[in-house]
Amino acid sequence: MKMPTLRLPRFPLKSATKSSIALHLTHNRIRLLGLKRDKSPLFAVEISPKEDKAKALKDLVDKHNIKGQEVIACLSVNEGLMKFYTYPSALSKKDLKNSIEWTIKRELLALKEEAYYDYYVLDSFPDPKKVGVIAVIARKETIEGVKRLVEFAGLRLKTLDYEVVAIINYGLYHKLPLPFSILHVDYDYSILVTYSPSNISYYVDQWNLAEYLENKNEETFESFISEIVSLVVLNDITSLYIAGPVLMYEDVTARIMENVPIFGLLDLEGIPSSFFIPYSLCIRGLEE
Length: 288
Prior knowledge:
The protein is of the alpha/beta class. The protein has helices at residues 53-63, 93-111, 140-152, 163-173, 209-215, 218-234, 250-259, 276-287, and strands at residues 19-25, 30-36, 41-47, 70-75, 81-88, 115-121, 130-139, 156-162, 180-185, 190-196, 199-205, 240-243, 264-265. A hairpin with a 4-residue loop joins strand 1 and strand 2. The relative contact order is 0.19.
């Protein structure tokens, strides 16, 4: 049985389909978003299933009458690994491919289990003597699990993306000035992604926004803010944007912005900010 490998976007994206459906799965949430060609929502639904995630997704598919349609799904940051490599630009296409494959196979040996991967050679690089390569690796078991869930729900898995790539894709599509950094704060973890033409890095913090909204634990909140500030200073980040579910809570967002030098808020017009990742996936689906 042929499994869908991770597929990275090819830039620049071009106009294609009339609508797009995206599925964002985290540890305890399902987000399903449909966008029309004009980027207005067909539907946007978010649930936190307590038991059977597959049945919960199937119920959503049936409710919105989208059975049999293609979907772009997304692995959460903790379910994959992204690497950034550079190679001499003097290499032939064949030698470059062999070098990339060799590097990735070394990464796979460290995992000690079967995995899928995909990579993308950047179209341009600041140093003409080098080429940049983005690679994403995920366990075979994880990818097969997503495929089974999607098929059980009655959808067809078109593409499997990765959260970090989806965040970068948003910045590139909306032409954020380079270099840019995006802090995506979800309910149970946060990702700080930095993209420049010559490097990509990301950091994951396990601060739990959902728990904070319930218990107002200031110690963990301040620790989270302190960690982000340290990363901003250490990495000399100057253009930092904030996105994700946190934007729905003005008091929490304001506290972060009082302490962290935020350049801008990446809110979504007509769509809840918790759908930042699915929105980026849908844009990819519309433009590929």
